[in-house]
């Protein structure tokens, strides 16, 4: 065995952009695995865990959150420059997050309504994923991300192999765990058939339809989900177009496969 | 194939099912059978026959499954549910081996602690188990894990007198009568016929043995020889079921149809509706494809190899150096149905479809294998009767 005290440990940095911190919490939530992790990596920057911040470069950077201010664009570019591997984590960093709902509305308008001095608020009119601005080595989906998948990605990069993150539908996980399909047996609308697996199909296991937290099934950035096909079925289940649009534009609003699946979005929601 | 005669057939009432489950459990079997859970009739380990879905039926259609109350006490008055017996003999996930550091590779032994007894195996599923035996249990490299789980499984088949609306075993030659591969076969009669004192709605069972193990168990059941008239009556009921299949898939020319239609525009038509979710392959009792995954812990010291179900609808399924071969939904659906109905013959000497109808009922968007074949035969996507026209293809 290697003596971990003698060898230089790879450095890990965790960065926050526009987000709720839930994905970073997933890392803290690793409890049993945190100590072994600390034995394998030097956590160089992770403000949610420690105020200590070591200078870069960093072997692995985890980026949480979407880009929603001009500042964030510059900061993300600087982080890219000092990072060996950059992994975008969570729906915000991979598909704009809930805040990408602004992409379908007039930001100036609600900024003027919400803030007493709107001119103090510097914000972009779009919330975008990290990949819109810098090269991203891996996108880990989810709102929030799944702890086992996060550990798998970290482990894979530590030993220099490809992360084993399936790119199939949530339905695979439903069937593997023996959950009865809520769409077929209960008539409950479900986004599982076009949503990438990773959560373990939690919602259908509690008789809820999948909310699409892990975003559309896609491979190497190319869309692979037939969301239109599912929309047809949701309509047949008497789901109104407005509701379908709302279901698809929740956590991964900036993913075009989801946001553009209903061609004529309700008024005021077109881009 | 044995034609049951009155001499080989016994009759018993519903209380004998409890004895049957108890006898099997006493003999060390884990009894797996149908039971109601989460709005469906699922398979689970039964600690007593009381957990059977007495009085429950199902209403099936493409993409729809609804549990409903029956007006009789049938225990087996339902067609194929969301799982098949495949889940037990060929589970969704299985550890193959593990290794610590430079230590030896330790093969996982995932043999069930107790052998399974499957209670309520439909004739189509009986045929499906035969197909899995051929694919996984035979050949030059039998799957050892499969063999360990499959060996010594005690099978109680139940013939069908009431096919579901998605059933078409009659077309595939795999039902509704149980012909071989069982230890015991039951026919559930609900019309009050039978020598045991019973009223309409209370089930009576004809039972026959298909193996020495079956004969052994049958000897412990409170069953009496059935008279020839009752046996003939049951036979008629099963034969009549063949005429009442909810769907059909005429077998003639099917193999050629698939081969000749490799370039049919119909595949794009299906692909506009199919969401490539993979449910059809996972509920199919004969789809057997798997992939392997290696996992390591954070230190890299402990490694494991797992095998899990895969599906030709998964993009990574056809991943070879540089990318996936079957990117479009059209090519993935074509692969699935062509293998099931045509190239399976070339590979394993039989059809890969037993007509259980699961892929029809459990497809979340209601794609129907029998209808897709009918459309291919008709030669034009416009012949279609279902909704979904105008939908855009995946790419
Ligand atoms: S419940 Fe949803 S995710 Fe699960 S199998 Fe059905 S459609 Fe797929
Ligand atoms: S046919 Fe139905 S169940 Fe099969 S992959 Fe397509 S949509 Fe899913
Ligand atoms: S292809 Fe469909 S009908 Fe045929 S055996 Fe598989 S699930 Fe049953």
UniProtKB/TrEMBL annotation, chain A:
<protein>
    <submittedName>
        <fullName>Oxidoreductase</fullName>
    </submittedName>
</protein>
<dbReference type="GO" id="GO:0016491">
    <property type="term" value="F:oxidoreductase activity"/>
</dbReference>
<dbReference type="Pfam" id="PF01058">
    <property type="entry name" value="Oxidored_q6"/>
</dbReference>
<keyword id="KW-0560">Oxidoreductase</keyword>
<dbReference type="InterPro" id="IPR037024">
    <property type="entry name" value="NiFe_Hase_small_N_sf"/>
</dbReference>
<dbReference type="InterPro" id="IPR051349">
    <property type="entry name" value="Hydrogenase_assoc-protein"/>
</dbReference>
<feature type="domain" description="NADH:ubiquinone oxidoreductase-like 20kDa subunit">
    <location>
        <begin position="20"/>
        <end position="156"/>
    </location>
</feature>
<dbReference type="GO" id="GO:0051536">
    <property type="term" value="F:iron-sulfur cluster binding"/>
</dbReference>
<dbReference type="InterPro" id="IPR006137">
    <property type="entry name" value="NADH_UbQ_OxRdtase-like_20kDa"/>
</dbReference>
UniProtKB/TrEMBL annotation, chain B:
<dbReference type="GO" id="GO:0051536">
    <property type="term" value="F:iron-sulfur cluster binding"/>
</dbReference>
<feature type="domain" description="4Fe-4S ferredoxin-type">
    <location>
        <begin position="263"/>
        <end position="294"/>
    </location>
</feature>
<protein>
    <submittedName>
        <fullName>4Fe-4S ferredoxin</fullName>
    </submittedName>
</protein>
<dbReference type="Pfam" id="PF17179">
    <property type="entry name" value="Fer4_22"/>
</dbReference>
<keyword id="KW-0479">Metal-binding</keyword>
<dbReference type="InterPro" id="IPR017896">
    <property type="entry name" value="4Fe4S_Fe-S-bd"/>
</dbReference>
<dbReference type="InterPro" id="IPR017900">
    <property type="entry name" value="4Fe4S_Fe_S_CS"/>
</dbReference>
<keyword id="KW-0411">Iron-sulfur</keyword>
<dbReference type="GO" id="GO:0046872">
    <property type="term" value="F:metal ion binding"/>
</dbReference>
<feature type="domain" description="4Fe-4S ferredoxin-type">
    <location>
        <begin position="344"/>
        <end position="372"/>
    </location>
</feature>
<dbReference type="InterPro" id="IPR009051">
    <property type="entry name" value="Helical_ferredxn"/>
</dbReference>
<keyword id="KW-0408">Iron</keyword>
């Amino acid at each position: 065995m290697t003596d971990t005290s003698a060898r230089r440990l790879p450095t890990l940095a965790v960065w926050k952009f526009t987000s709720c911190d839930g994905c970073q919490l997933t890392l803290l939530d690793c409890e049993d695995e945190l100590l072994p992790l600390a034995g394998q990596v030097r956590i160089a920057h992770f403000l949610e865990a420690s105020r200590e911040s070591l200078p870069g470069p960093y072997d692995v950077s985890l980026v949480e959150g979407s880009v929603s201010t001009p500042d964030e664009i510059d900061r993300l570019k600087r982080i890219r420059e000092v990072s060996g591997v950059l992994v975008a984590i969570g729906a915000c960093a991979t598909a704009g997050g809930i805040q990408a709902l602004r992409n379908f509305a007039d930001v100036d308008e609600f900024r003027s309504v919400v803030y007493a001095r709107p001119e103090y608020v510097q914000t972009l009119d779009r919330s975008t994923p990290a990949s819109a601005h810098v090269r991203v080595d891996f996108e880990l989906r989810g709102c929030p991300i799944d702890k086992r998948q996060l550990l798998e990605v970290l482990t894979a990069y530590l030993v220099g192999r490809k992360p084993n993150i399936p790119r199939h539908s949530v339905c695979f996980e439903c069937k593997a765990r023996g959950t009865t399909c809520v769409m077929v047996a209960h008539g409950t609308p479900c986004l599982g058939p076009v949503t990438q697996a990773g959560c373990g199909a939690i919602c259908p296991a509690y008789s809820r339809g999948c909310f699409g937290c892990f975003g559309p099934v896609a491979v190497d950035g190319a869309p692979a989900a037939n969301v239109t096909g599912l929309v047809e079925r949701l309509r047949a289940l008497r789901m109104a177009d407005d509701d379908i649009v709302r279901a698809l534009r929740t956590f991964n609003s900036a993913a075009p496969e989801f946001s553009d699946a209903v061609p004529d979005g309700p008024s005021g929601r077109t881009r | 194939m044995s034609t049951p005669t009155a001499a080989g057939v016994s009759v018993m009432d519903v209380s004998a099912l409890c004895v049957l489950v108890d006898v099997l459990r006493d003999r060390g079997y884990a009894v797996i059978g149908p039971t109601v859970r989460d709005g469906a009739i699922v398979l689970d380990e039964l600690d007593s026959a009381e957990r059977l879905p007495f009085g429950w039926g199902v209403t099936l259609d493409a993409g729809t499954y609804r549990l409903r109350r029956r007006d009789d006490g049938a225990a087996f008055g339902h067609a194929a549910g969301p799982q098949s017996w495949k889940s037990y003999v060929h589970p969704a996930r299985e550890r193959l081996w593990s290794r610590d550091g430079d230590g030896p590779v330790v093969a996982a032994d995932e043999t069930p602690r107790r052998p399974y007894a499957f209670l309520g195996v439909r004739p189509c599923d009986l045929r499906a188990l035969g197909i899995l035996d051929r694919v996984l249990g035979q050949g030059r490299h039998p799957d050892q894990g499969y063999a360990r789980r499959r060996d010594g499984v005690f099978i109680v088949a139940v013939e069908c007198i009431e096919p579901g609306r998605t059933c078409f075993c009659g077309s595939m030659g795999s039902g509704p009568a149980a012909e071989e591969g069982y230890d015991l076969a039951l026919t559930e009669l609900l019309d009050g016929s039978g020598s045991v004192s019973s009223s309409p709605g209370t089930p009576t069972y004809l039972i026959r043995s298909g193996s020495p193990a079956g004969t052994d168990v049958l000897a412990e059941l409170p069953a009496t020889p059935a008279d020839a008239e009752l046996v003939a009556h049951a036979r008629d009921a099963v034969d009549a079921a063949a005429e009442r299949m909810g769907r059909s898939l005429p077998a003639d020319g099917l193999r050629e149809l698939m081969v000749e239609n490799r370039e049919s525009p119909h595949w794009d038509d299906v692909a506009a509706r199919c969401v490539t979710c993979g449910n059809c392959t996972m509920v199919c009792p004969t789809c057997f494809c798997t992939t392997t995954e290696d996992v390591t812990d954070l230190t890299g010291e402990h490694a494991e190899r797992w095998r899990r179900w895969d599906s030709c609808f998964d993009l990574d399924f056809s991943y070879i150096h540089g990318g996936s071969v079957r990117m479009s939904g059209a090519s993935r659906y074509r692969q699935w149905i062509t293998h099931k109905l045509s190239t399976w013959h070339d590979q394993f000497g039989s059809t890969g479809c037993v007509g259980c109808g699961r892929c029809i009922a459990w497809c979340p968007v209601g794609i129907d294998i029998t209808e897709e074949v009918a459309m291919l035969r008709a030669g034009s996507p416009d012949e279609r009767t279902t909704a979904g026209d105008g939908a855009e293809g995946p790419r």
